[in-house]
Amino acid sequence: MSQLDAGVRTLEPGRSQAAPSNIHGVLIVDKPEGLSSFQTTQRVARMLSLSKAGHCGTLDPFATGVLVLGVNQGTRIVDQLTLQDKVYIVTVRLGVETDTLDRTGQVLASYDGPPIGAQACENAMGRFSGAFEQEVPRFSAVQVGGRRLYDLARRGIEVTPPRRVVHIESMDLLAYEWPLATLRVRCGKGTYIRQLAADIGREMGCGAHVHSLRRTASGPFTEETALSLDRIGELKMEGEWARKVVPLADALAHLPRICLEDEGLLRRLRNGDLDRAWQKEQLRWIPEGRSPVCLLTPRMQLAALWWPEAAEGAERRLRVFPFHWNG
Length: 327
Hints:
CATH architecture of the largest domain: 2-Layer Sandwich
Largest sheet: 10 strands, mixed
Structural class: alpha+beta
CATH class of the largest domain: Alpha Beta
Oligomer: single chain
Radius of gyration: 22 Å
Number of helices: 9
Distance between the termini: 39 Å
């Protein structure tokens, strides 16, 4: 699924005496074609005997590429990772529209006119930059009236899909040979690449659908460091897979951070509390905004996420993680 609305899904396959429950962070997986994001997460969890695993930024089964998996306590930070930009390489099949907006769907309409040039494609792409409202595809996991759109679509129930504001940071035409166009898209959370391709085809007057889709980056995590399922299996056999897990603090390097040197503060933090005078002092330099702050131990282990600007009456301002006094 090229959209990010599904956010985070976690699974708990059950504890095992061999489960590496003391390993926490994120694992960057290269999702293969043919598996859903949840199925991929399930396979990795079983392969590595994980007590808990969860993915963020859902990919359609036919899509491939970077899938960020939270490992154990890492499932508690994936909500902070879904907010980051994603990069996709998408091949668009011009001249054919499908009900799912990709090659897995039923053909709805075909263009029988002359080939359209690359300049027309670039002109159409230019109409989708920055922030704009995008219609949610009929075949998506978004709920309307308590039911998922794809379930309603499969039952032939017509509803008006919601619209959402999305953001396209950049879009480049990498290759063009009618009827195929290959694009690189950098976009924000919630962008539907399938809908983007269909909208470009509509602007060109010929219709279009996604022929192939690969996510090459999710935030700082790129395909160069993503592990295939086969490679994960090899690393498990070699006893080396844990080295590929990105620690919690490193995975959240984009957030502001404070190192707590005082053992008294750390002790209070472990009990879910922060000194009010200390909080007031920190607010002098912390950037304004709703982003959490990473609170670290002296050895840079993540101790907690702190929301200094949490709304009045918010249920939580702290998310505490297991940590040791000395790191």
